[in-house]
Amino acid sequence: MRLTELQFEDAKPVEGYGPGFFRIAGEVMAAPLIVTETGARPWGGYEDVDALLAMGAEIDVIFVGTGDEIAHIPREIRLKLDAAGIGFEAMNSPAACRTYNVLVSEGRRVAAALLPVTKG
């Protein structure tokens, strides 16, 4: 089996995470945050749906990292994202980081909205 290392060109990958933080392109940032190919910025969590909606023209799908365990995204957020035509997928934050990295390395128009993990 041959493994291929991901190439990110100018995209900003998620390089690591731990209790309350993520490392994005070499910079440690407190969670929660939004990551796109151009960088990362703080996110207000589920109460900050406007930040997710504002990315509608830039991305096709948002991977929502729900923390240590997979959880449902609140209904009102799902309805607003659907109405805006923004695709989304909920998964635990480690899986959201991995999925984001693979797809952004392929040049796909993706983002990750990441809630913190509590375990290292």
Index terms:
120 residues, single chain, 8 strands, 3-stranded antiparallel sheet, 5-stranded mixed sheet
Give a description of the structure.
The model has no long low-confidence stretch (mean pLDDT 92). Strand 1 and strand 2 form a beta hairpin. The longest helix is centred in the last third of the chain and has 13 residues, at 93-105. Strands 5-4-8-6-7 form a 5-stranded mixed β-sheet, sandwiched between helices. It has a 3-stranded antiparallel β-sheet with strand order 1-2-3, with helices on one face. It is built from 3 helices and 8 strands. With 120 residues, the protein is of the alpha/beta class. The protein starts with 13 loop residues before the first strand and ends in a 6-residue tail after the last strand.
